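Hi R.,

As promised on Friday, here is the backbone we talked about, encoded as structure tokens. Could you run it through your design pipeline when you get a chance and send me back a sequence?
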């Protein structure tokens, strides 16, 4: 990845006025950080460039001698349909604008328009092309069923197909300069995915992480944007902000759902304009950092309730992955258990214990509100008190029992309310027994725990059931 050029594709500027070409080139670079441009003085020269360069966007003058802009637009549409074209005309003519839009022009500007309008239109086209290419890559990765570089996700232990699809998506959008939103419950491993996204991005700058929970607006601004000397009482020296520290890399904002509305406005400007003001400065600075955010909150619900700005929400979710909780990928419990057993034994200087076979079944029947982080804590606790070759299940039973006792009781719903015919007591009891045995993999001790009865009581019931079936 060449950090000196932006965007990754070339932007072709075609005009027969050299002064206008120089002015536009400088404006795009100074106002939008766009440096990957090539200028042509005629339509025929432009066609030659299109054949040999990777052009994604072309800005065409409408009134040029030789091959005029309108005819050049038509030829580009025939030969290079993937290239977006913006018309920049010296005249404000409605009829020509309508004809150009019908020929497929992405936008139409007049040279007398304010420079900001033209720059904004170019940036809008660039983002559209980047998203189109990224979506194509994402679809290709998803169709393949997994990432092309699995090693980038080696720190994440999983057998889940859902997680493999997430890996493929993150790999597809890793090079994008657009924001990435990572959502999921606490403890699901969102930070590991952010680190993988940064590693795959090819960015030469660092990954800089900031937890924004609890930061008021002033502290948020100073943390992200820094300040100049004398910006406030005690600011005896200038200080870099995290945005500058992350230059050329990735700025990771964790717990973004807790950001105050006032700070949301500042973050929106940073994403939208690519620039920021250090405290006490009236000179804007541009950022080359990619912004990645994460939250355990439901941002869509928060936005609907007015607690999160809609425009910022849609900016942040340009690319979005949701990490499923551990209870929805129970196939990961066994490999995670073995991984944490080995990790804990090594950290505590002990020999790795052997887990009993019924342990995975017991863990699989638990909802894990704390997700992977909770499982890791359980394993470390068990290994810390472990003495024999076989790992005891006692600490796991104790931890699960305490967690379930502390859990908020769910609203009581009568499971038989929708039944047209109510089952008898014996039928209902048998349904419960069958379900408990199914969830425990046939283990009667574990099934009895799920039912809240003793193992002998369950065994007795099963014997009575078999006698009744045998007549």
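Update: got your reply. Pasting your designed sequence below so it's all in one thread:
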């Amino acid at each position: 990845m060449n950090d000196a050029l932006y965007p990754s594709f070339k932007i072709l500027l075609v005009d027969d006025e050299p002064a206008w070409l120089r002015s536009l080139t400088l404006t795009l670079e100074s106002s939008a950080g766009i440096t990957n441009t090539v200028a042509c003085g005629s339509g025929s020269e432009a066609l030659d460039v299109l054949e040999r360069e990777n052009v994604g966007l072309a800005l065409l003058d409408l009134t040029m001698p030789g091959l005029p802009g309108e005819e050049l637009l038509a030829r580009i549409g025939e030969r290079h349909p993937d290239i977006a074209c913006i018309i920049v005309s010296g005249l404000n003519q409605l009829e020509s604008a309508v004809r150009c839009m019908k020929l497929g022009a992405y936008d139409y500007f007049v040279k007398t328009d304010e420079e900001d309008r033209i720059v904004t239109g170019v940036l809008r086209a660039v983002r559209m092309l980047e998203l189109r290419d990224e979506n194509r890559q994402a679809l290709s990765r998803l169709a393949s069923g997994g990432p092309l570089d699995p090693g980038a996700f080696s720190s994440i232990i999983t057998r889940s197909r859902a997680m493999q699809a997430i890996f493929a998506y993150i790999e597809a959008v890793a090079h994008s300069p657009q924001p990435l939103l990572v959502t999921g419950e606490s403890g699901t491993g969102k930070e590991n995915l952010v680190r993988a996204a940064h590693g795959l991005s090819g960015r030469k700058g660092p990954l800089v992480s900031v937890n924004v929970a609890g930061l008021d607006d002033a502290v948020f601004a100073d943390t992200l944007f820094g300040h100049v000397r004398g910006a406030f009482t005690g600011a005896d020296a200038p200080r870099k902000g995290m945005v500058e520290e992350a230059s050329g890399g990735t700025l990771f904002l964790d717990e973004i759902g807790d950001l105050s509305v006032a700070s949301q406005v500042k973050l929106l400007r940073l994403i939208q304009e690519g620039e920021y003001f250090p405290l006490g400065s009236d000179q804007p600075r541009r950022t080359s950092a990619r912004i990645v955010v994460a939250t355990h909150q439901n941002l869509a619900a928060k936005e609907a309730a007015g607690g999160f700005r809609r425009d910022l929400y849609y900016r942040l979710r340009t690319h979005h992955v949701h990490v499923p909780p551990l209870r929805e990928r129970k196939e990961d419990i066994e490999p995670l258990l073995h991984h944490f057993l080995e990790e804990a034994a090594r950290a505590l200087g002990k020999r790795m214990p052997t887990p009993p076979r019924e342990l995975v079944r017991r863990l699989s029947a638990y909802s894990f509100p704390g997700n992977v982080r909770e499982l890791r804590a359980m394993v470390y606790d068990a290994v810390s008190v472990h003495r024999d070759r076989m790992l005891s299940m006692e600490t796991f039973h104790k931890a699960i029992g305490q967690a379930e006792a502390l859990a908020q009781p769910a609203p009581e719903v009568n499971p038989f309310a929708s039944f047209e015919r109510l089952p008898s007591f014996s039928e209902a009891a048998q349904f419960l027994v069958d379900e408990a045995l199914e969830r425990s993999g046939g283990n009667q001790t574990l099934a009895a725990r799920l039912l809240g009865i003793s193992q002998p009581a369950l065994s007795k019931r099963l014997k009575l059931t078999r006698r009744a079936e045998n007549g």
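One thing I noticed while checking it: The domain at 150-324 is CATH 3.40.50.300 (Rossmann fold).

Thanks again,
M.
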